[in-house]
Amino acid sequence: MTTAFASLPSLDLQGAPCDLRVVDVQKHYDGFRLGPVSLDIPRDSVVGLIGQNGAGKTTLMKGILGTIHLDGGNIELFGQNTSTLTDVALASLKERVGFVSAVTSYPVNMTVRDVARTYELAFPRFSRAEFERLATSMELLPSAAGKRVHDLSRGMGMKLQLACVLATGASLLIMDEPTAGLDPIVREEVLDLLRTWMEGGNKSILISSHITSDLSNLADYLAFIDDGQLVLNCGRDDVDAMGVAHLRTAELQAVRAGRVAHDMPALRHDLSYDLLVPDRTAFSRAYPDYVCDPASIDDVMVLLVKGEVR
Predict the structure, then answer these.
(1) CB of 166 within 8 A of CB of 130?
(2) Which helix (H) or strand (E) holds 164?
(3) Torsion of CA 282, 285, 289, 294, to 10 degrees
(4) What is the C-alpha separation between 169 and 86, in angstroms, rounded?
(5) In what order do the strands lie in the sheet with 72-77?
């Protein structure tokens, strides 16, 4: 299990307007425990949720959406504690939340028109005009209007989900691996659509993805879950400031004796170590003769999970 590292950056969003607050959420299964996890989704921001398969990302999202019963903690939507609301009030609040899953889960015999009609009946604020605008811009309409769900490609299915969800008038999106399995062109179309949607203001997104390059280009904040625990929660700029120092044994010992990265994890190779550095600029000033490269999100994940502190 990954441990917390005092030198890592962290967020303090107390007082900031948040469309979603996860407060000490816990869920227990046989052989797995999520939490307690606390996480804020600030208004007008995109939070990228990262972690290995089985780390707890989907469990956390299910808890937020209310599709599983939580064993502890609270979910706050748009400033209201969901556990204190009546069923009617909670349903009204959830109309402002849109969920996009990794798979297109509509009945396979439905046509694109049928799916849109279902959303129209289920969501009072659904805009048929907005759906048609979005679907046309993504080339679903008019050509695919009569196509059935089982005939849609992976990319077309995701476009259909997005057109329907965004047309509901949602102001908070919960997205579970929306770009998985998409070809690079469709993936970029999806990301562009989300960027454009965010430009309208008063919106927010919590998105999980194994394609960390997508989050590098979209997310304002990153939250890393490992083995059910929130290990890292910081701004994307904080991750951009990190580095990976490539050190020999004696060099690692020298760094460990200092203060710049003394408690950070290092991954051993045959003849050297990779050390995660929280501030590459500060490290380079303190150790100008040591090689320190920029850290990618993948680098940070690998070093936090597999690296050791001695």
Answers:
(1) yes
(2) helix 154-166
(3) 40
(4) 22
(5) 32-42, 18-29, 72-77, 80-81
Residues 152-176: tens digit of each pLDDT: 999 999 999 999 999 999 999 999 9
Note the Cα 253 to chain centre separation in Å.
Answer: 35
Q: Rounded to 10 degrees, what is the CA torsion of 106, 218, 266, 243? A: 170
The pLDDT assigned to 3 comes to: 54
Domains and CATH numbers, the chain: 18-238 (3.40.50.300), 242-306 (no CATH)
Q: Encode pLDDT of 38-68 as tens digits.
A: 999 999 999 999 999 999 999 999 999 999 9
Measured distance CA(48)–CA(245) in Å, rounded: 25
Q: Cα–Cα distance between 83 and 38 in angstroms, integer?
A: 16
Alpha carbon distance 282, 238 (integer Å) = 13
What SS3 class is residue 206? strand
Q: Residues of the chain whose pLDDT is less than 50? A: 1
